[in-house]
User: Fold this.
Amino acid sequence: ALDAAKEFDSMISLAKQQQTANLPISRMPVELLETIFQNTLTPSGVWETLRYTTSLARLMLVCHWWHKIILDAPALWAVISCDDRFDELEIGKALRLSSRMPLDVIFRPPYTEGRKLPHFFSLVNPESLRWRRLVLKYDAPAEDLELLE
Assistant:
């Protein structure tokens, strides 16, 4: 019975993949879809309100095809962001998947998370030659700026 259930699940999965493959968006060139993702995720306003890598992760859940496209597109991983939540694994993954692309490094934590600045920079500093842009948005008392030394 267990083998039959696995076989049934496999057939359902295959049918869903075939159905998705027939959709017009599935016939769109990969480069065009990458450009759409990049333009959708990187307007200046997104850095103010959303976590970039979380948005990428959500897009990867849409279907297997989008998952593969996003993982294989270094330009989509070239935004290294630390804002409302600090995730060392997420930053490492983005650095790895960005390959040799120029990086936009963004540090915008809530005030209470500012102590994580040195740790964040210890992760991204080895790639500093690839930095295209550094964005620091840190509201804190002047004495806390010694963290940048």
Q: What stands out?
A: The longest strand covers residues 131-136. The chain has a mean pLDDT of 77. The beta strands are 79-82, 103-107, 131-136. The helical segments are 2-21, 30-41, 46-49, 52-60, 64-71, 88-97, 117-124.
